[in-house]
Design goal:
single chain; 192 residues; mainly alpha; 12 helices; elongated
């Protein structure tokens, strides 16, 4: 959902408000649930609201909006570990095996590209991810890598057609040969 300035700010605001409402609803159970249960509830009910559209608009989100999402993730971690507002959450994020939001965006985008290349569907995304061998007129050493279009403006670098293949090409070959489930596990370790 783009706003009049062709940004996702309104959509990010809506998603954060929706997730914040869910988090506030859980505060009455704060003392009743153990940490592990709170962490699972936060990951499945609250952070999943933010994660669902990261591959679609993740790189197009402004720095301010990404910072707002990071602050929300920090608030969710404070709920899980009963931290005060001024306490740092970095150690808690590491203990929970969570990645910062910007890194989550990159990991989810790589997972989407890998899934599309492995399964060959949906077709409209397969068409956006051609290999260099399909596009180039000459045979090169980089035929197996994904082609990303030439862009002149910074806004073009934020689109999925450029951002997804660029991220995926930077991954080591050992990751690209894994199954979808193994790839999801290993990509988080790679970005840590």
């Amino acid at each position: 959902m783009l706003d009049s300035g062709l940004t996702f700010t309104d959509h990010v605001t809506y998603v954060i408000q929706r997730a914040l409402g869910r988090l506030r609803g859980l505060y009455r159970y704060k003392t009743l649930l153990p940490e592990i249960a709170k962490l699972r509830v936060v990951q499945s009910l609250i952070l999943s609201v933010l994660y669902y559209c990261f591959p679609a608009f993740g790189n197009s989100v402004s720095g301010e909006d990404m910072e707002r999402m990071q602050k929300f993730q920090n608030a969710a971690l404070r709920f899980v570990y009963n931290l005060r507002r001024r306490d740092h959450v970095s150690a808690s994020r590491d203990a929970a095996n969570m990645l910062p939001m910007k890194t989550v965006c990159r990991a989810l985008t790589c997972c989407l590209v890998h899934r599309v290349l492995t399964l060959g569907e949906p077709q409209y995304l397969v068409d956006r991810l051609p290999s260099r061998g399909e596009v180039a007129l000459r045979i090169t050493r980089q035929e197996s890598q994904l082609h990303f279009p030439r862009v002149r403006l910074e806004i073009g670098r934020k689109g999925f057609s450029y951002f997804g293949p660029k991220l995926y090409n930077d991954l080591p070959c050992s990751l690209k040969t894994l199954s979808i489930n193994s790839f999801k596990c290993k990509i988080c370790e790679y970005f840590k």
